[in-house]
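<instruction>
Derive structure tokens from the sequence
<data>
Labelled lines for chain and fold:
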Amino acid sequence: MEVADYERAEIAQDMRSAVADAGLTQAAFARLIGTSRPRLSAYMSGRTIPSAALYQRALRIARGLKSSRAHGWMTPDRTIDQINAALADGDEDWAFKLVLQARDQLAYQLRTDDPTGDAWLLRSREIADPRYDTLLAVLIGHEFEQHGGQRVPRWTEGPRLAEPWLQANVRRGADWTRKHTPEWLAARGIFISDHDLTTA
């Protein structure tokens, strides 16, 4: 079916609004939603009509990012940047706490139907250390699974460490930690006790 001129204009305006709401450059927003900057520019001008999936993705992500700014919430890329900075400084404790803080904020967003949760559906960067990159992916994916599981981010589904990572509980040791690691986390090659996942 041919797209009417007014429909083309409305879609173009929606795409321009999405970029503004996201608070990102065109290049950064294009990378985040899985397209190129020239293609995004064509969508914004109305020269090209995006697919329904990309159109919905752009609006959803932009809404989530706008809400995150309004409430001061963490987002995937900002979290990843902060974790990379902490690791570059040699501060693994702070990197670990950032992962848990992001997980806790997302849990609240999903529980309260806050639109900021949509910001976690996509990311455009990775954590330099595969241990923390996998940990973030697993924890974020698990939260989505715990809240319906209908829109688990694809970036959370694949990572698994080739070499197991054991972060032993300081007081109880390695064997106790292995025993008290959730199965869904151990399956990805990470051994951290459920106690340490909730009290760090």
The first helix runs from residue 5 to 22. The chain has a mean pLDDT of 94. The chain has two domains: 5-71, 76-199. Residues 76-199 form one domain.
